């Protein structure tokens, strides 16, 4: 066969281009093709990262351009790691992460499992369940603040109706103990569908014939669930955890809309805290160091996690 | 082991009737092969016996007990699926041990290990025991799938074309191996295939299925030597039975429309004139493609025949089969 595809490409290349390209090695041509992407990546990802790293060793403040910028070494890092306020926000973030992940996996998997039992109208149910995920976080935050209204909020009304308590006796957003849960509930409401979709993909990837084989091998439904369904969906589930974990570590929009970090600083997760340091207190050098620490944390956790995920997959 | 009895099994999928009033008895310790082309209802029948699918009408009896509504676990059947259906996240060893770990059996650990090893050796997969089930070739997967059935002692082994994806050598080995296992265990087998060699060599009984109907049931020799119809006669024999107009070789019984001639029913040397069109030397035999009064037929002759294409040869039928216009045997 003389008409292979490289041949056809060569024939179709216009003369001037072909002349310019001849003499270039395959490697060089490959570089030309990927160069635009690499350039973009460098400009919008790698460069800011390096710049931030550089700033984190200075005492720069962008709102005081006339002050001289001093090199302070690791002092920013020292101050952050010794700051009890920052450890509090870290704790708030961890608390938030743990509960959102736990609830979303539990509810998401259960929903997926229920939807996957073929019943009439399950496609319609899927669509309805997935709706919250498609809304803008700003909108979601806004209307949940209405739902959480002690006087007119539907949430308070329903809780009051079910528990018999006075709906206006508590405020999800203003109460120090309840505010973290207000955010956990909204995030779970909004993002459980995402976990459900991934779990559903996992469940649908298990061929029916495997369950039939298990049926013939005299495995009970319970044993089928634990020895077939769970292990085969596990890689999908872990992927969902990875996505949600990284997203929620950066959680910002819902919190801003609902509580703005309050009351006090009870719902001040790291991204809000960081934004305050950087753009309200304008401590640019300090917040750069803060950002680097968060970056290393997320990156480290995610790498360990991805390793574990690959292990599960190849098992 | 057990006797399986099917009574009037009927099953439709929408407008398609997959099985129509199938009744048959698989005697205890028998090796019953269901023969038929794709779509004849072989696999559906197997699923009826396994309990994975329920009949619209009819009964499934295992050892005289009506288990028509019972689950596969209650029926205690072992099934080998055509598409392997291994547990992809488990190793070969875990796949083989899976049925033994059923709480219904309470098999001790060392017993499980021993049985798995034993079966793996018979099926020549002992060296792959620690591989993941998905890291195997098609033939190995199918052997694991057979092994998963053989580790148990069910009431019946159900096998859906278990050898179809194996290469010729392995298929021949496993054919003998399966037959040996069946005889050693005195096991009851219900085995689906479209391979007539498997049917002839392993079966104690052959059931011929045609569009969901059981058209003939009996020992292989009987089905071969005494087929009830053109359809049943065409299932067995290689080269296939020659089907020609009934009057081609002179007088035919009244009502006969077709004469059926297996190679051994064609006597060479006398009778009608025919021309040799092609000579195929297969080593142990030679196939002759003949042309007789504008009709093609294939027969077998001596391995060292001197016949050449273009030669003429006289042939005549010997104890042929006659079929009526509907294809039924006269």
Overview of the structural elements:
The complex is a heterodimer of chains A (315) and B (330). Helices cover 73% and strands 0% of the residues of chain A. In chain A, helix 3 (26-55) crosses helix 14 (284-314), helix 5 crosses helix 9 (179-204) and helix 9 crosses helix 11. Chain A has 315 residues and is mainly alpha-helical. Chain A has two domains: 5-46, no CATH class; 76-314, MetI-like (MetI-like fold). Chain B is α+β, with helices and mostly antiparallel strands. Chain B has two domains: 4-235, Rossmann fold; 243-323, Beta Barrel (OB fold (Dihydrolipoamide Acetyltransferase, E2P)), CATH 2.40.50. Chain B has a six-stranded mixed beta sheet, sandwiched between helices. A four-stranded antiparallel beta sheet of chain B has the order 2-1-4-5, with helices on one face. In chain B, a hairpin with a 2-residue loop joins strand 1 and strand 2. The two termini of chain B are 39 Å apart. The mean pLDDT of chain B is 90. The chains are: A mainly alpha (315), B alpha+beta (330). The interface between A and B is medium-sized, with 18 and 26 residues.
Primary descriptors:
heterodimer; A: 315 residues; mainly alpha; MetI-like fold; 14 helices; B: 330 residues; alpha+beta; OB fold (Dihydrolipoamide Acetyltransferase, E2P); 4-stranded antiparallel sheet; 9 helices; 17 strands; 32% strand
pLDDT below 50 for ≥5 consecutive residues: which ranges of chain B? none
Query: Mean of residue pLDDT of chain A?
Result: 88
CATH T-level fold name of the largest domain in chain A: MetI-like fold
What is the CA-atom radius of gyration of chain A, in angstroms?
Answer: 26 Å
Terminal Cα separation of chain A, in Å? 43 Å
The CATH topology of the largest domain in chain B is Rossmann fold
> From the 3D coordinates, which CATH architecture of the largest domain in chain A would you assign?
Orthogonal Bundle
The portion of residues forming beta strands of chain B comes to 25-35%
Apparent shape of chain B = globular
CA-CA gap between termini of chain B:
39 Å
Shape of chain A: flat
Q: Quick one: which chains have the greatest interface?
A: A-B, 18 and 26 residues
Q: State the CATH architecture of the largest domain in chain B.
A: 3-Layer(aba) Sandwich
Oligomer: heterodimer
Helix content of chain A: over 70%
Structural class of chain A: mainly alpha
* Count of helical stretches of chain B: 9
Number of DSSP E strands of chain A: 0
């Amino acid at each position: 066969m003389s008409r292979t595809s490289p041949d056809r490409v060569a024939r179709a290349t216009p003369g001037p281009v072909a002349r310019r390209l001849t003499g270039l090695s395959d490697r060089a041509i490959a570089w030309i093709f990927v160069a635009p992407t690499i350039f973009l990546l460098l400009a919008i990802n790698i460069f800011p990262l390096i710049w931030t790293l550089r700033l984190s060793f200075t005492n720069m403040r962008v709102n005081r351009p006339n002050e001289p910028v001093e090199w302070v070494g690791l002092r920013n890092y020292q101050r952050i790691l010794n700051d009890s306020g920052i450890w509090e926000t870290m704790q708030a973030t961890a608390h938030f992460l743990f509960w959102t992940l736990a609830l979303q996996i539990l509810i998401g998997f259960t929903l997926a499992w229920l939807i996957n039992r073929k019943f009439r109208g399950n496609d319609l149910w899927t669509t309805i369940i997935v709706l919250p995920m498609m809304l803008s976080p700003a909108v979601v935050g806004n209307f949940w603040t209405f739902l959480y209204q002690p006087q007119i909020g539907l949430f308070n009304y329903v809780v009051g109706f079910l528990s018999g308590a006075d709906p206006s006796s508590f405020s999800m957003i203003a109460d120090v103990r309840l505010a973290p849960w207000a955010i956990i509930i909204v995030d779970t409401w909004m993002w459980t569908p995402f976990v459900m979709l991934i779990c559903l993909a996992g469940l649908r990837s298990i061929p029916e014939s495997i369950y039939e084989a298990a049926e013939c091998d005299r495995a009970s439904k319970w044993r089928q669930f634990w020895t077939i369904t769970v292990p085969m969906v596990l890689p999908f589930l872990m992927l969902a955890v990875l996505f949600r974990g990284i997203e929620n570590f950066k959680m910002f929009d819902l919190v801003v809309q609902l509580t703005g970090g309050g009351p006090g600083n009870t719902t001040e997760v790291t991204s809000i805290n960081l934004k305050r340091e950087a753009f309200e207190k304008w401590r640019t050098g300090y917040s750069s160091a803060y950002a680097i620490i968060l970056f290393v944390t997320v990156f480290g956790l995610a790498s360990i996690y991805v390793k574990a995920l690959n292990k599960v997959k190849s098992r | 082991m057990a006797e399986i009895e099917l009574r009037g099994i009927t099953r439709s999928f929408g407008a398609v009737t997959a099985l129509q009033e199938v009744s048959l008895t698989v005697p205890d310790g028998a090796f019953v092969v269901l023969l038929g082309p794709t779509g004849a209802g072989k696999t559906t029948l197997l699923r009826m016996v396994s309990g994975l699918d329920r009949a619209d009408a009819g009964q499934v009896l295992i050892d005289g007990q009506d288990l028509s509504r019972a689950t596969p676990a209650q029926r205690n059947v072992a099934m080998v699926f055509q598409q392997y259906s291994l547990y992809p996240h488990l190793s070969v060893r875990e796949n083989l041990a899976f049925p033994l770990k059923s709480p219904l059996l309470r098999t001790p650990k060392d017993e499980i290990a021993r049985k798995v090893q034993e079966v793996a050796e018979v099926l020549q997969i002992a060296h792959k025991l620690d591989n993941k089930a998905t890291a195997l070739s098609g033939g190995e997967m199918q052997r694991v799938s057979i092994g998963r059935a053989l580790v148990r002692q069910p009431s019946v082994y159900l096998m859906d074309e278990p050898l179809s994806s194996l290469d010729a050598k392995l298929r021949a080995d496993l054919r003998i191996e399966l037959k040996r296992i069946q005889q050693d265990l005195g096991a009851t087998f219900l085995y689906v295939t479209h391979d007539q060699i498997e049917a002839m060599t392993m079966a104690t009984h052959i059931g011929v299925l045609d569009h969901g109907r059981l058209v003939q049931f009996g020992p292989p020799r009987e089905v071969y030597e005494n087929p009830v119809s053109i359809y049943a006669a065409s299932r067995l024999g290689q080269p296939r039975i020659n089907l020609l107009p009934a009057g081609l070789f002179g007088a035919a019984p009244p009502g006969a429309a077709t004469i059926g001639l297996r190679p051994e029913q064609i006597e060479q040397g006398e009778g009608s004139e025919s021309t040799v069109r092609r000579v195929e030397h297969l080593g142990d035999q030679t196939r002759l493609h003949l042309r007789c009064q504008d009709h093609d037929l294939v027969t077998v002759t001596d391995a060292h025949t001197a016949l050449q294409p273009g030669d003429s040869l006289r042939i005549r039928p010997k104890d042929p089969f006659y079929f009526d216009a509907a294809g039924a045997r006269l």
